[in-house]
Amino acid sequence: MEGEGTTLSEEHQEEKEEYVLIDLDGVMGQVHIPSNAPYVLSGLDTLNPILTIDGKIKLVGEYDETVGTCLVFSESDAALVVHEETGPSEANLFSGACIVDSKQAPVKQVKPITSLHKILRFRLMEEAEGAASTDKQTNNANEQVE
């Protein structure tokens, strides 16, 4: 009995979060996706997850394994470099003043967030495909309940 309990706890320890990149490039020219539109992503544990946007647009996804590891980064504005004149000097006309170079390009700070190994690419769901997929998901749900 003790060995079985150890195995279960080891499985829980081995579970890791998995990140997936959602790629909508394949549908961007075909449909307009409003910014901040509500969406439902279902069937992530299936081969073809369904993404419903604003209750109107239905997309079907397919996983692609990445070659190597994809890194995900976060970009934020970095603080401006400020030059402060210090120390006494006859030539120092701006003693104690801070000088910001107006020609300095905006600086961005990039930090790695995570890595991922899968990309979920979406395409428009055809009407007949949508009905078959819905029936299949309903059947799977009924089998799980029984």
UniProtKB/TrEMBL annotation:
<protein>
    <submittedName>
        <fullName>OLC1v1022888C1</fullName>
    </submittedName>
</protein>
<feature type="domain" description="Transcription factor TFIIIC triple barrel">
    <location>
        <begin position="14"/>
        <end position="126"/>
    </location>
</feature>
<dbReference type="GO" id="GO:0000127">
    <property type="term" value="C:transcription factor TFIIIC complex"/>
</dbReference>
<dbReference type="Pfam" id="PF10419">
    <property type="entry name" value="TFIIIC_sub6"/>
</dbReference>
<dbReference type="InterPro" id="IPR042771">
    <property type="entry name" value="GTF3C6-like"/>
</dbReference>
<dbReference type="GO" id="GO:0006383">
    <property type="term" value="P:transcription by RNA polymerase III"/>
</dbReference>
<dbReference type="InterPro" id="IPR019481">
    <property type="entry name" value="TFIIIC_triple_barrel"/>
</dbReference>
